[in-house]
Design goal:
alpha+beta, Cystine Knot Cytokines, subunit B, 24% strand, elongated, signal
Length: 401
């Protein structure tokens, strides 16, 4: 047997003995002050002794998130300052204060600021709890960011190693795109300028603001302005249309009520071009009879009334009544204005169904009313099937329009 085989054999037996020993069970080290080695001057080691024994808070209580908690001295009466004597390398005496931990507690090392915008900090668990489930993720992950439930945050799906940026730019996970390098921001900050994100050059803030306004960056662009103008124009036209229809309707009904239209008739009489005619005559109240007179100036109306009284003063009651009736008949003969003498479909509302009209004289030979002092409106042949009845004493009625 060679000599080197003997130590090797002894090593094998010793290893077997260790492996055959029973494992031991160690208890968890709770958060409490324990003796520790503390450096008197941890950076320069100028004093002796270099280390001393002091109490320090160590350990962890069994908690769900031990990485989010730490064992620290209590805020009140948790530590004391101990003054010790040390020597410098030159042999000089020096007094040094070192903190000694006397009472410890576990404290969260994170807060709400350490959570994502989609998480809520809970002090009971000393952790961040996600506000969304996998099926109810937030709807405000703006492209190109996507939702990741494990991170409870909107993340950038792009791989920074596969992105190619311009000369002065680098890929940023926070922006999920190419941004100017950090050195350009530091350089511009020293010059009290800002970085132009397009060229990564330092410019004055006024120049950057003017550039943004000229390009409508972040403002209202031309397309948006055009849409707003079109919508406003449509609303104005819409309101004007209904306002016009409302006013026209009420004005038309007002004029219709002012006219006391009594009756009319249909017939296929001897009218040129084989067109039908509708004839009617309206009676008017005292207010309508004075419509034309009220348009004249007050002084002229007073003088006219004075002349009328002088002219009728010397006549008898019978003559005065006859003259007044003739003047009234002449006044009513020209009542209807020229614009109302239009086609029937445009003025079908001027007549009332089953109204009564008084006419001058007996009915004509073809069954219709006499044409004396009557107002005619042309009616298409399609409306000629209406029925009209006129009595011998000069009254008629419209039964269909």
């Amino acid at each position: 047997m060679r000599l080197y085989s003997i130590p090797l054999l002894l090593l094998v037996f010793w290893s077997s003995a260790i492996l055959a020993a029973d494992p031991i069970h160690l208890e968890n080290v709770e958060c409490a002050p324990y003796i520790d080695h503390v450096a008197t001057d941890p950076n320069l080691y100028r004093y002796e002794p270099y280390f001393v024994k002091m109490h320090r808070c160590h350990g962890k209580h069994p908690v769900p998130n031990p990485k989010n908690e730490k064992c620290v001295p209590k805020m009140q009466n948790g530590k004391d300052n101990v003054e010790i004597i040390v020597l410098t390398k030159l042999g000089n005496v020096h007094f040094l204060n070192i903190t000694n931990h006397t009472d410890c507690e576990q404290r969260c090392v994170i807060s709400q600021e350490d959570c994502t915008p989609y998480e809520q900090f809970k002090s009971s668990t000393c952790g961040c709890s996600c506000n969304y489930s996998p099926s109810t993720g937030p709807k405000n992950c703006y492209a190109p960011f996507i939702w990741q439930q494990s991170a409870c945050n909107c993340i950038c799906p792009k791989d920074e190693h596969s992105q190619v940026c311009a000369k002065r730019k680098v890929f940023s996970k926070e922006e999920c795109g190419c941004t100017c390098k950090a050195k350009f921001y530091a350089r511009c900050a020293k010059r009290k300028q800002v970085v132009d994100e397009g060229t990564c050059e330092c410019v004055d803030p006024e120049v950057l603001v003017g550039k943004s306004r000229s390009g409508c960056d972040g403002g209202v662009n031309g397309a948006m302005l055009a849409v707003v103008i079109i919508v406003e124009a449509f609303v104005i036209v819409f309101c004007y249309y209904f306002f016009y229809r409302y006013c026209y309707k009420h004005n038309f009904l007002g004029r219709k009520k002012e006219k006391n239209v009594s009756s009319g008739y249909y017939h296929n009489g001897d009218i040129p071009n084989d067109t039908a005619a509708r004839t009617y005559e309206s009676t008017h109240d005292e207010r309508e009879k004075l419509t034309e007179n009220t348009r004249k100036p007050d002084k002229e109306l007073i003088r006219q009334e004075e002349r009328e009284r002088v002219r009728l003063n010397g006549l008898s009651d019978k003559e005065r009544i006859r003259i007044e009736e003739e003047e009234e008949s002449d006044q009513y003969a020209g009542y209807y204005p020229e614009e109302e003498k239009s086609r029937y479909p445009n003025h079908n509302g001027d007549m009332y169904y089953n109204d009564i009209m008084e006419v001058d004289g007996p009915p004509s030979s073809h069954g219709g009313p006499p044409s004396l002092d009557n107002h005619n409106l042309n009616i298409p042949p399609d409306y000629s099937d209406a029925i009209s009845d006129f009595s011998e004493d000069g009254y008629g009625s419209v039964t269909q329009v």
